[in-house]
Design a protein that fits this description.
It is a single chain. The chain is built from eleven helices and no strands. The protein has about 325 residues and is mostly helical.
């Protein structure tokens, strides 16, 4: 079934776009058309991955998990999505040194490739939220489809910037880290990993990215990053909303997220070490994978952004303590 959905052409519900981002605006659609778009997206996802009748008719109170049949059917797509037929991607468990402080044009091109990889991995992971959990409420699918739309718009922005650096897509292989960490988890864990951990950590760094380009007088990059920050706050807020619907209380959310992160880390590091043992990647690859999980802990918590994204004051304090503890351990070692 061809992917004909046009969610990436929908307008964002707010009007916070910077003047320079005006070219990214899309005409607002009527509610009935939005409904048709969502139904089309769901139909495509269901056809691509699994039909409703492969899901159990009922699920434990407040939860929905993929069946064994669904896991078997989607396993190959989770480990080797269609992207790999057209874009050179790193393998699961493979990582390259990343660059976040840009000093020259070559670094700018690598930086844009990292942003592009993040957007592709994220909207693919969100697509799996819909495809594998068809019995989740319609509003969940609507919210996730909105995030897919946003991530596609972000991708458009970084692709628009790439030619201005003299670069072309594919000069560096793209990481699929954000996509890979979600594989094999139930829907609450995926939300915990993607929206509450990965994207919330991105919130803590976006002001730094924006300041970098602002000090260099790059108004377009500054405006694009401001746009991304607005969207990411919304994504994390929706993730927190759905976790609170799926979990009994904040304590259960904390346990779930901690357990999911530990499992994802263990899986990624095992894959990284296996690649090293096989001689498929240089020594030190597993350390680069570890840093994908641990480097965000070196950032200060952006209290304002996290509050807007639906974190409670207590949750923000816990995260700040976690990072102070990680910093002390880093110094000790």
């Amino acid at each position: 079934m061809p992917m004909t959905t046009s969610w990436h052409r929908l307008a964002h519900p707010d009007s916070e776009l910077d003047r320079i981002c005006g070219s990214m605006k899309r005409p607002r659609l009527e509610a009935s058309q939005i409904t048709r778009e969502l139904e089309e997206l769901h139909d495509v996802a269901a056809e691509f991955a699994l039909e409703r009748d492969t899901l159990p008719p009922t699920a434990p109170a407040g939860r929905t998990g993929a069946t064994d049949a669904a896991t078997v059917r989607t396993a190959s797509m989770l480990t080797r999505p269609e992207r790999e037929h057209v874009i050179r991607a790193l393998r699961v468990g493979e990582a390259h040194e990343e660059i976040w402080y840009v000093t020259d044009t070559n670094g700018h091109r690598r930086y844009l490739h990292q942003l592009i990889a993040f957007e592709i991995s994220t909207f693919e992971a969100c697509s799996r939220h819909i495809a594998e959990f068809a019995s989740m409420p319609w509003r969940f699918h609507y919210d996730v489809a909105g995030q897919i739309r946003d991530e596609l718009r972000h991708l458009e922005m970084w692709l628009e910037r790439l030619p201005h650096t003299g670069g072309r897509l594919g000069e560096w292989p793209l990481s699929a880290h954000e996509y890979a960490v979600c594989a094999g988890h139930d829907v609450p864990c995926r939300i915990g990993l993607l929206e509450r951990l990965v994207e919330a950590s991105a919130l803590d760094s976006l002001d730094l990215h924006r300041c970098l380009w602002e000090t260099r007088g790059d108004q377009v990059m500054t405006a694009y990053l401001a746009r991304v920050q607005v969207d990411e706050i919304g994504h994390v807020r929706l993730g927190n909303h759905w976790l609170r619907r799926l979990c009994a209380d904040d304590a259960e959310i904390e346990r779930l997220v901690t357990r999911a992160e530990s499992a994802a880390r263990e899986h990624a590091l095992a894959a990284a070490r296996a690649l090293e043992r096989a001689g498929l990647v240089p020594p030190g690859n597993a350390e680069l994978v570890r840093r994908k999980f641990d480097d965000p802990l070196a950032l200060a918590v952006d209290t304002t952004a996290r509050t807007r994204a639906g974190f409670t004051a207590a949750e923000i304090a816990v995260e700040a303590d976690r990072r102070r503890h990680a910093a002390r351990q880093e110094v000790a070692t």
